[in-house]
Specification:
Structural class: alpha/beta
Shape: globular
Oligomer: single chain
Distance between the termini: 37 Å
Strand order of the largest sheet: 2-1-3-5-6-4
Bound molecules: 2'-monophosphoadenosine-5'-diphosphate
Order of helices and strands: EHEHEEHEEHEHEHEEEHEHH
Helix content: 25-40%
Radius of gyration: 19 Å
Strand content: 15-25%
Largest sheet: 6 strands, mixed
């Protein structure tokens, strides 16, 4: 059935800026692949406009939208409901219209991260995980590692106080940033959740000599796709999972809720997104 444009299921992503977002490319790929009527738009929303934009999406009967920087936390009081996982993480990346004018905030970054890891490597929650970083991304990762039953999580951040604050919400052993090489001993998973290694940012300086070669290494940074950490880990013999998977898998739940069909993360989708990244 072809719907009139005005009735077309509508979703999108808000951010400030938002031009860099790969979400439109992901969702439009699925809409086309699945032959669904619907549209997905990137909308630039400066912080002062956030409340008015949420109201206008309600009035326009949007199915929902993704939320990116800098709105992931500030949007929470503007929504009608926050699901428990997003509440625990303290950030919303996906909003879903669950009833007439009711907007529910969810967080699909955390399950997206875990789905990407599982798709890319064999994960053993019985072995220690080392998490580098204590920002917003790290909060989502700690929540999902905890849900996945990881028994030992070592959390290291340049600003140790931030790590201590995070460890008050999620069980983790806080170590010193300067001890990061030694704290890799015996680990089964190493996660870079800092911005280090991203194009234009400083490098992540780390020596992997003490990391078991069986440990899975992953990076939330996906520009570049193969960060120095992943290249170094690969050369060391470790299985690696790049950061693009998290972006692709986090999109699945939102799409399913808005458009009623659960899409698949495939090599074709990945290739389509990589073209936009110039990778
Ligand atoms: P996000 O919400 O995306 O995680 P963020 O809150 O800005 O972003 O966090 C960025 C992370 O990268 C933090 O863990 C930050 O460490 P600090 O809390 O000490 O700032 C880390 N980071 C950024 N630049 C860094 C650097 N030069 N050295 C070490 N860590 C750095």
């Amino acid at each position: 059935m072809t719907l009139r444009a005005g009735m077309m299921p509508r979703a999108g992503v808000i951010g400030w800026p938002v031009g860099h977002s790969l979400s439109p490319r992901i969702h439009r790929f699925w809409l086309k692949e699945l032959g669904l009527d619907g549209c997905y738009e990137a909308v630039v929303v400066p912080p002062d406009w956030l409340g008015d934009m949420v109201d206008s999406f309600r009035l326009g009967r949007w199915r929902g939208f993704n939320v990116t920087v800098p709105h992931k936390e500030t949007i929470m009081p503007l929504l009608d409901r926050i699901d428990p996982a997003a509440r625990a993480i303290g950030a919303v990346n996906t909003v879903v219209a669950v009833g007439d004018g009711i907007f529910e905030g969810r967080n699909t970054d955390a399950p997206g991260f875990m789905a990407s890891l599982h798709a890319g490597a064999a994960i053993d929650p019985g072995r220690p995980a080392v998490v580098l970083g204590a920002g917003g991304a790290s909060r989502a990762i700690l929540a999902i590692l905890n849900d996945a039953g990881f028994r030992e999580i070592r959390l290291l951040n340049r600003d140790r106080v931030r790590a201590e604050c995070l460890a008050a919400s999620f069980p983790a052993i806080v170590g010193d940033w300067s001890d990061r090489n030694a704290l890799l001993e015996g680990a089964g998973l190493l996660i870079n959740a800092t911005s280090l290694g991203m194009t234009g940012q400083p490098a992540l300086e780390i020596d992997l000599a003490r990391l078991p070669v069986t440990a899975v290494v992953t990076d939330i940074v996906y520009r570049p796709l193969m960060t120095d950490l992943l290249l170094k880990a690969q050369a060391h013999g470790n299985p690696v999972v790049d950061g693009l998977g998290m972006l692709l898998y986090q999109a699945v739940e939102g799409f399913a809720a808005w458009f009623g069909v659960r899409p698949a993360v495939t090599q074709a989708l990945r290739a389509h997104v990589l073209v936009a990244m110039g990778a």
